Automatic annotation (TrEMBL):
Keyword rRNA-binding: no
SUPFAM superfamilies tied to this protein: Protein kinase-like (PK-like)
Keyword Nucleotide-binding part of the UniProt annotation: yes
Name assigned to this protein: Protein kinase domain-containing protein
Provenance organism: Arcella intermedia
Residue sites binding ATP per the record: K27
Protein kinase domain residues: 1-252
Length: 275
């Protein structure tokens, strides 16, 4: 019926349920989009998706594998959160809004981790908005999920890839915390913390943890929010903020201020997302 978007390893198409005639989203993963997709079998992915039952996780409708590739059928939502916000008319985004969404991402990821699963792809394309008002998120994109403590590569978006993944080191749940740090930076400023058209420079900046809180983008953001982000973007996974500490962080528990983040709306409109 048409493409809804594409990412590092998949294409998402609009479809229709034969039974209910309702619209669905179909994530198509083929050898063309993800050369090693068969290393994660349909059964493994299916088991992970079926094990996840949470109000902030995208509902699985069906999952099947054909000669062409793997197809994950999900309920249709408003779209990737960043795209929904980007397309919003007269967007008014506050620090409280950002804190609310980040808290939802943290709590949902904590649930995923409690099942012994690393999501591995918490990027703009997999954090969906359940509705046009961006009040609730739905996490999807479990096609690259893994059991914890592994050396398998994760084919996530380069802007969200943790340093230990770039270095081919054994990694655990903390790669998801790094990705949440990148997403938090984006939801507070409208920009990626690490952004460079040159992949070598981008990877070098990630490995060195080289990013900055530009005054023009962060002037209205609570300093506690910056400390929260810095803790998640620690290049050393052993020193990176844990899930428990993130949820107990003063900025998270305080709920964020009602300050309107005008720079966020301006920056977001000018950002080109891959989803």
């Amino acid at each position: 019926m048409g493409d809804l978007g594409s990412g590092a390893t998949s294409i998402v198409k609009l479809g229709e349920s034969k039974e209910t005639k309702s619209k669905v989203a179909i994530k198509c993963i083929t050898e063309a989009t993800h050369p090693s997709f068969r290393s994660n079998t349909t059964k493994v992915i299916g088991d992970i998706l079926k094990a996840c039952s949470h109000p902030n996780i995208a509902t699985l409708v069906d999952l099947f594998e054909e000669k062409e590739g793997l197809f994950v059928v999900l309920e249709l939502y408003a779209g990737p959160l960043t795209k929904v916000l980007q397309q919003s008319q007269n967007l008014v985004w506050t620090e409280k809004d950002a804190c609310r969404i980040i808290t939802q991402i943290l709590e949902t990821t904590q649930y995923i981790h409690s099942l012994g699963i690393i999501h591995g792809d918490l990027t703009t394309g997999n954090i969906l908005s359940a509705d046009a008002n961006a009040t609730q998120i739905k996490i999807s994109g479990f096609t690259k999920a893994q059991k914890e403590e592994t050396e398998s590569d994760i084919f996530c978006e380069p802007y969200f890839k943790a340093p230990e993944l770039l270095e081919g080191k054994k990694h655990g749940k903390s790669v998801d915390l790094w990705a949440i740090g990148c997403m938090s930076f984006l939801l507070l400023s409208g920009k990626y913390p690490f952004a460079d058209s040159n992949l070598m420079r981008l990877n070098a900046n990630i490995k060195n943890g080289k990013f900055e809180f530009a005054e023009s983008d962060w002037a209205k953001v609570d300093p506690k929010a910056k400390e929260f982000v810095k803790g998640l973007l620690n290049v050393n996974p052993q020193e990176r903020t844990t899930m428990e500490k993130a949820l107990q962080d003063p900025w998270i528990t305080g709920g964020g201020s009602g300050e309107v983040l005008t720079a966020f709306a301006v920056n977001l409109k000018g950002n080109k997302f891959t989803h």
